[in-house]
């Protein structure tokens, strides 16, 4: 995958795809910007688009976890937490995972807010959330489908910064690993939402009626979900 470095936003990856009709820039779950573009789009054109869209991109970044850095003691997923260890034994920050802790060894004159440390944390967090998602979501989705009479073709995990989940017309359900940041009730709401899309590939009244049949509090859950972001 191609990329270029912007002075303000850092590395921006470029994903050229055959079905794309225009250039679209988003924030990935790892906190980095990604441009999706038609196959023959010149990199120079994408760079100009970034330059012309700086105000919009700053606003986009402001509503993601890029502007909400990880902190000491923060819970990650269902079973992990960040533990910061100030130490003179290292000359550069080290991020590692031990049991249920993400350990950050900080040398003198370094802070957890340093951009490079935050990015290293995002990489570690993504691995943990993916592991937790693979351990929990397949069985939970299967249980809900069995209980309520749904069928789906297969399950895949996504790493998209914009959506919690999706469902194709062929019955493939995609779930964002960032779901593991949510309370169990909201995870269930997303799973139910996608299962209902196996019958209704839209957001018609019939679709929402199907959701409500399983989750009578779906309106509350939907509002609560908007307070969260799938950005890691």
Question: Could you walk me through the main structural features you see in this protein, from its secondary elements to its overall organization?
Answer:
With 232 residues, the protein is of the alpha/beta class. It is 37% helix and 24% strand. It has six helices and eleven strands. A four-stranded mixed β-sheet has the order 1-2-4-3, covered by helices on one side. Strands 5-6-8-7 form a four-stranded mixed β-sheet, with helices on one face. The protein has a three-stranded mixed β-sheet with strand order 9-11-10, covered by helices on one side. Strand 7 (94-98) and strand 8 form a beta hairpin. Helix 3 packs across helix 4. The longest helix is centred in the middle third of the chain and has 34 residues, at 115-148. It is globular, with a radius of gyration of 20 Å. The two termini are 21 Å apart. The mean pLDDT is 91.
Give the rounded overall mean pLDDT. 91
How widely separated are the two ends? Answer: 21 Å
Shape: globular
Largest sheet features: 4 strands, mixed
| Strand coverage percent | 15-25%
Brief synopsis:
With 232 residues, this protein is an alpha/beta fold.
Would you spell out the secondary-structure blueprint of this structure?
Blueprint: E1 2-6, E2 10-17, E3 24-27, E4 33-38, H1 43-52, H2 54-62, E5 75-76, E6 80-86, E7 94-98, E8 101-106, H3 115-148, E9 154-158, E10 165-167, E11 172-176, H4 184-197, H5 205-214, H6 218-225
């Amino acid at each position: 995958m191609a990329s270029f470095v912007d002075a303000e936003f850092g590395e921006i990856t470029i994903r050229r795809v055959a079905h794309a009709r225009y250039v679209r820039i988003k924030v990935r779950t790892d906190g980095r910007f990604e441009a999706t573009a038609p196959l023959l789009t010149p990199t120079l054109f994408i760079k100009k688009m970034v330059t012309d869209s700086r105000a919009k991109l700053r606003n986009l970044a402001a509503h993601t976890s890029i502007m909400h850095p990880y902190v000491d003691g923060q819970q990650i997923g269902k079973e992990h937490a960040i533990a910061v260890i100030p130490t003179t034994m290292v000359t550069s920050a080290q991020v590692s995972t031990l049991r249920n802790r993400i350990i950050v060894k900080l040398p003198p004159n370094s802070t957890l807010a340093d951009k490079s440390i935050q990015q290293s944390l995002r990489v570690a967090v993504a691995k943990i959330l993916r592991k937790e998602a693979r351990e929990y979501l397949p069985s939970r989705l299967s249980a809900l489908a069995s209980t309520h009479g749904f069928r789906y073709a297969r399950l895949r995990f996504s790493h998209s910064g914009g959506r919690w989940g999706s469902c194709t017309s062929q019955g493939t359900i995609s779930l964002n690993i960032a779901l593991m940041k949510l309370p169990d009730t909201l995870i269930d709401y997303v799973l139910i939402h996608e299962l209902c899309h196996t019958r209704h590939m839209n957001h018609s009244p019939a679709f929402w009626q199907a959701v409500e049949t399983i989750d009578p509090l779906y309106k509350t859950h939907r509002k609560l979900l908007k307070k969260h972001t799938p950005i890691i």
